[in-house]
Protein: Citrate synthase
Amino acid sequence: AIDISKLRDESGHVTLDIGYKNTGATKSAITFLDGEQGILRYRGYSIEELAEKSTFIEVAYLLIYGELPTAQQLEDFQYELSHHTLVHEDMKKFFDGFPQRSHPMGQLSSSVCALSAFYPESLKTNQTPEEINLSIIKTLAKMPTLVSWIYKRSLGHPYIYPKNKFDYVTNYLHMTFGQRTEDVDIDPVIVSAMNKLLILHADHEQNCSTSTVRIVGSSDSNLYASVSAGIAALWGPLHGGANQAVIEMLEKIQQDGGDTDKWIAKAKDKNDPFRLMGFGHRVYKNFDPRAKIIKKACDDILEKLGINDEVLEIAKQLEEVALKDPYFVQRKLYPNVDFYSGIIYRALGFPTDMFTVLFALGRLPGWIAQWKEMKENKEPIGRPRQIYTGETPRSYVDLDKR
Ligand code: ACO
Structure:
């Protein structure tokens, strides 16, 4: 492929590709995605195999350092992480200052950025690889603490401190569902479901939030600030925010009597802004492989937990109708990862507005791996061009003459 960044056109010509539909912004060795075939691999390993056999923290290591860890490397990694799970006590004041009902994604983005104030060594330019690694460990280790505290704050419950005897995912669940007054047993079914969900979200090459992390990092911004920007990008309903939007849509359809044909018709009506949330993808023009795994996991988890959720039935009906409808078939619109994930989060007891935060927790290793790769490749500052469509030169008009 021609590296167009090396081609400087003295005449000022630029390539216009609004939404970067066909523009590659980097070379990356992290995630392989074939949207036509529905293939997704992290560092060469298929998503299906990783979701079945691996744990989230192993996958995080794989994405960030390039290889699956040996038993010793995994132990060392967990040990290092467990020594950075606490966040500065003053961060509590930060959460106390938010209105109790404010959206968790706003709280997460600002609190992750605020970590740079508490751990200012991250602001140093020209960090050594060891210093970069420490920022990586701190970000990974502290994120579950922040995420669970945001949840506890929304309930008005006391914050729960990490217990470092637990593995990464169990520790997160302990801080989320645990109580100060007594130890709460974390159901292994829930630990396994969370591992699977987080693995499926861990990376997805140059999506909107990951590109944001890379572009912010390309100005030599610190890791906390770059991840915070990624969280902001993920928040939107066209990206990670779709998992919240899907459940809200399914609940609305349920309250409306469950007439899926009516809602499919609304999604097809070009005069109606409504879109079938959780359907369609910029890159997948075949089934999203993550959606297949999540759909199966959803059935399994609901059965294991003994939950009968009517919303799951509506989701399945919608999918069945849409997959036969020429509108969706012609446009190659299939369910994406967000279509079924919210149903699992709901079954696990998470409130709807926490869903996108859980996506962020899963995507964190991918953001970190991509930020690290961008730094190691010494990529130049990201700076797209534009085609100017504004006014031609004109003279200033004094205020009394306008
Ligand atoms: N419902 C109805 N029609 C749709 C949908 C949908 N969910 N998605 C796309 N379309 C239609 C568009 O109206 C357009 O139709 P047209 O050709 O007649 O104008 C055509 O399909 C192509 O859609 P675009 O918006 O051009 O596709 P793009 O690649 O820009 O957008 C996106 C992809 C944002 C994911 C889109 O499919 C969408 O809005 N989906 C719903 C939100 C969603 O689920 N987002 C999560 C994505 S996955 C993730 O981020 C983790």
User: Anything to note?
Assistant: The pocket of acetyl coenzyme *A is lined by residues 238-240, 242, 267, 275-282, 331, 333, 336-338 (CB under 6 Å).
